[in-house]
Amino acid sequence: MTRRTDGDATRVEPRRLPRRPTGVNRTPLAAPAAVLTLALLLSGCAERSTGATPAATPTTPAAQLPAGDALVLRVQYVGGFVTPEMLAGRLPLVSVYADGRVISEGPVAAIHPGPAWPNVLVHQADRATVQQLVDAALAAGIAETTDLGSPGIADAPATRFTLSTAEGTTVREVYALREGDGDPMLTEEQQAERAELLELFTELTDLPSTLAPAGSAPAAYEPTAIAALVRPEAAAEGDPILEPLADQPALAWPGPALPGEPIAPDLTCVLASGDQARAVREAAQGANALTPWTTGDGARWSLSFRPLLPQETGCADLGD
Q: Residue 37 and residue 30: Cα distance in Å, rounded?
C-alpha cells in the first residue's frame, strides 16, 4: 500500500501488483482427482517396495505351569463295577508333575496269583513336554463344562482328567469314555467332544512308552508312605480258585497295628511311613496277591498295597 497526504488528510491506496510479462505460457493446475489418484498409486508402490505385512493377530498366552514339583496333569479311572479294594487302591493311569516326573504303573507278569507289590515306575520328561501336554489338554476341552452325554452302557468306569496350573485346578469326568465311543445315544456334538478327550487320553496313557526310547530307563517309584488295605483272611474252603492256594506260606506283618481305620464294609486301611514303609515294601515284594499275613496275636489277614503318590498323605486320599 502507499500513503498520499493531501493537506491534513491521508489516503491509503492499494498497491498495484506487477503485471506478468507477456509471451509467457501459463500451465493450468492439475485436476484434484488426478492428484489423488497419483498419490494412491505412489502409496501402493511404497508398500510393495518395503514388503510391509499386516499386523499379526494376538494369540492367547499359554497356561503357566505351577511351581516346584506340583501335580500338573492326571488321568485315572473312577467308579465302575469293581471291588471296594480296587476302588480304594486303584492307581491313577498317569500322573505328570511340574518337575517332569511321569508316574504310572508298569507291566505286570501275567501269572496267578499276581505279585503283591505294584510295579510303579517313574519316567522323566522335560518342562517343554509338560507345557505341550497342558496346551493339548486345554485344546481338547478339559476346562469346558458342556454336557458330554451318557452312553447306554452300565457299570463302566468314568475317566477323570485333572489339570493344575498356576491359575488353579480343573477336573472333568467322562462316563464310559472308551466304551461309549460311537454310541448312538450321543449327539454328534457330544461324540465330537468325546473324541477330542479320547485322543488326549491316548496321548497321556502312551506317554510312558513314548518317553522310554527317548531317555534313560524308568526308575522304580520309591514311596515315602504306603497304605495297606486290610481284610480278615477269606475262607478258601469250597472256592475252586482259592482252595488250591490255601496252603501258601504266611508272612509276618512288619507294619503298624492291624486292622486300622475302616473305609468300607469289612475293609480297613493302615498307613506305614518311614522305616515301617521300607519294611512293608521289602516284605510285599516277596509276596503275592493271596499271601496271608499274620500278626503277633495269631490273626491272619489279607492285604493289598497302595503306594502313596506325591502330594498324597494318608488313607483319606485313596479311592474316588
A: 11
**Global confidence as pTM:** 0.78
Q: How far, in whole angstroms, is CA 98 from its chain's centroid?
A: 11
Are 156 and 175 in contact by the 8 Å Cβ rule? The answer is: yes
Domain membership flag for residue 17: no
Q: What is the CATH number of the domain that holds 151?
A: 3.30.1560
Percent helix, strand, coil in the chain, to 5, is 25, 25, 50
Site of grid cell 496313557? 205
- For the stretch 151-196, pLDDT in tens is 999 999 999 999 999 999 999 999 999 999 989 999 999 999 999 9
Three-class DSSP category at 120: strand
- Residue 41 forms part of a structural domain: no
If asked whether residues 122 and 240 sit together in one domain, one would say: no
Contact 302, 233 (CB under 8 A): yes
Its domain, for residue 96, covers: 62-221
Task: Report the alpha-carbon distance of residue 320 to residue 160 in Å, rounded.
Answer: 10
Domain end residue (candidates: 158, 192, 221): 221
Residue 193 lies inside a defined structural domain of this protein: yes
Instruction: Name the 3-class secondary structure at 231.
Output: strand
